Amino acid sequence: VISVDISEGLGQDYSVINIFKIDKKTDDVIERDRPKYTSLSDFFCLKQIGMYRSNYISVKQLAELFYILAFEYFNPDNFKVVLEINAYGNEFLAHLPHVFDGSNNYGSSIFFKYKHRADATEEKIGLKVTENKNILVKEYQTRMSNGSVLLNNEDNKNKNH
Known about the structure:
- This protein has helices at 27-33, 59-73, 89-95, 133-145, 154-158; strands spanning 2-5, 15-24, 44-54, 81-83, 113-114, 124-125, 149-150.
- By secondary structure, the protein is of the alpha/beta class.
- It is globular, with a radius of gyration of 17 Å.
């Protein structure tokens, strides 16, 4: 699973690409929490295996870097991407088909789709974070504390970027 959070690249907020591997939770965590498990997915976690973080890269440059990771380095059949769509997500998506002057293997099937509004009938690429931000942050904190998300980079553990 790859997550992408995009900023404007002006030295303030960070653009971040986080790379996670789906892994089995540790035996200690499984034994401790087994009575609370309600599905098979409860036995697994997302383990951070890589991260790119910059507050100077442009949206276009980030799209180029992401393309190389997603379509040249990784096999696009083996992962899915959570893209925060809020401010720069659509610009990011617009750049991807044009990497290498359009001579590329870009395909949008790698992206998770979500409903962008509560009353939406169709799902679209990207996760729109609005009034649900507090709920998402709380869920993230819960998953960190119960071993469902394991971070290895100190920037992710200690800062809210």
